[in-house]
Amino acid sequence: MVKKKTKIYFWLKFDKKFFDNLFIKRLKNTSGGYAMTVIYIRLMLESIETDCILYYEGYFESLIQELALKLDVSEDDLNMTFSYFTKCGLIQIDENGNAILPQAKSMLEQESNWAKYKRDQRKLEKKMTELDNVQPLSNMCPTDIEIEKELKLDKELELELEQDKEDRFVDVVEANLGRGLVKFEFDMINDYLIGQNVSKDLFLEAVKVAVANNVRKFNYIARILDNWINDGIKTPEQAYQAQRDFKARKANKTMPSQSNVPDWHKENYVEQTSPEEQEKLAKAKKQMLERLNKLNNSQDNPN
Question: What PANTHER family does this protein map onto (predicted)?
Answer without folding.
Answer: DNA REPLICATION PROTEIN, PHAGE REPLICATION PROTEIN-RELATED
